[in-house]
Amino acid sequence: MFKWVHLSDIHFQENEGYNIEIARNDLPTYLNEKIGKCNVIFITGDFRFAKNSKGNIDDVCEYIKKIKSAVNAEYVLCVPGNHDLDRNSMREAVIDGVCNKYNAATDGAFNADMLEYLTSGF
Fold first, then answer.
1. Which of 3, 19, 23, 40 could form a disulfide with 75 if both were Cys (CB 3.0 to 4.6 A apart)?
2. 2-37 burial by CB neighbour count: b if 16+ within 10 A, else e?
3. What does each of the 122 residues of the chain score in pLDDT, given as a tens digit?
């Protein structure tokens, strides 16, 4: 049997409320008790709230490792979300350009420079 866990919207950020910290800290134990072992963990975005997070990437990574260990998962598959990136006016201009230029006529293909810029913000 293939078992999996799906998590989303963890939203690590500075100055979190006490209840949020308790819930997040209790989740690995809860998953261990309810799930035991699984094959894969899917984490679909919003690991952090970028505009209220300064340098907490290491905390997010350690937390994901803790979850992985709690359920003895073989794999963790992550997809960044809209809150995982740092936003600025340049990025907004690039996204507007993408929306106007890349469509069905281009088969949605990005050039390497554009793709590198868009992914560098995560």
1. 40
2. eeebebeebbbbeeeeeeeeeebeebbeebeeebee
3. 899 999 988 877 767 666 878 888 899 999 999 999 999 999 997 877 666 565 577 888 898 999 999 999 999 998 887 777 767 787 777 777 777 766 555 566 777 887 787 777 76
